[in-house]
Request: fold
Amino acid sequence: MSHYKVAVFDIGKTNKKLLVYDRDLVCLNPSDRPRVFPEITIDGLLCDDMPAIHNWMLDSLADAVRRFGDIRAVSISTHGATLAFLSADGSLAFPVVSYMQPLSADEDDAFYAEMGISPAAMQQATGTAQFGFLINHAKAAWLLKRRFPARFASVDSVLMFPSYIAWLLTGRKSIEPTYIGCHGYLLDISGQKYSSVADSLGLTRKLPPLPFSPPWTALGTVTDEVARRTGLSTDTVVTVGVHDSNAALVPYFASGRTDFVLQDSGTWVVTMSPCAEARFADSEIGREVFFNRSIYSAPVKTTIFRGGAEFDFYAGHVLQGRPHPADVNMDVLRAILARREAFVLPTIERGSGLFPDSTARIEGVDAVFANPTASWCAVDLGLAVQGFAAIRMAAGESPSEIFIEGNIGANNPIYRAALATLFPRSKVSFGSTGGAPFGAGLLALAAVEGARPEDFASRFSLGATSVAPLDVDSSLMRAYADAFLARLR
Reply:
């Protein structure tokens, strides 16, 4: 068993990859190019091209077997907010509807009216916030039931997306906590039972019965047909799957950490912090603050805002392609902090994020556009203050450790150093273990060896780099942050 490998399906909304890891968690094909599958329209609905994705899955597994040999497990990590509705024979009763399927304001209002509960009350009851499109899983079920009532009545079972991928490989159904617990409205805030929303939609009896299977559980082995098509051994195990954001937490849990924050950034800046109890502050209702569920079924307080999208907007539409500085100009930074007159404020997508009532705007135009360095400095500080607010909402004033991953953390020295300045009692680091696919790979090892993720702590290191605070009076940074946040109320 010393030389076996595991395969990880990393199925993002845009990019999809199959990564192969050895038993020491070294990725053997990091340079493989991702595949992109354009969405398709079926029955007037925007859908993921599941037939093409399924063929790609089998072809990529066959290629991995040819290249790397002994693959003992397949682990699955997918993007959120996607369901599969199955007929009694196991085929899809509906195509796999994209969470980017538009939902009109009238339809969104009708959803809450039919459920008999307001968005605020639903946030309290289920632990999740109101999102647009079909990002709340329950809205996808509601929309299909509304538009296709007869076909919806024929649905035999409902699977979360990673569990559906596992079903395609094993022919077995399962439910695990991370996916149904991610902004779906289908799980009660206690995390122990399906929600009243699931009951109202008639889904409770169609979802797999509780309790949850831990995501490191081996659901079963690949079917004979999958083995024939791919060259995998028929004793290759498949995990029950995991939500990608929660998979990114796995290495931190496995290394024994409990009091930490992970902030990852792409289009969204996602901030996650394990906690003892799912409970909102009154001020958090109506904001994009919610509770995920970890691989251990425990609550993970989560906040999101479109920080990457905001950065791209200013880069393209305001700063007109002027390059982002590689280093921090401390003279310009100190002047902006001291004068407190240059502010680049959210929210680009009105109604979203942590400040849904704030209108995106620039205050102190002359100061912001004094020169390109000042412009970028103001943009970076604005993002950093939002990141500061996100961490405070998720974890309070002084989490023990803050880990920054993703594009903003890696490429924006002002952002990460400003966070280190605003959290003087926290250890701030940046870097990445490899994100969701690495975490899913760790779960695969546990499935092969009949162990728990924390049993593999000796096989990897987090590899994070410590972040030093800005060389400024920390009270200046906090005064700027306070002045920025005061403008959003």
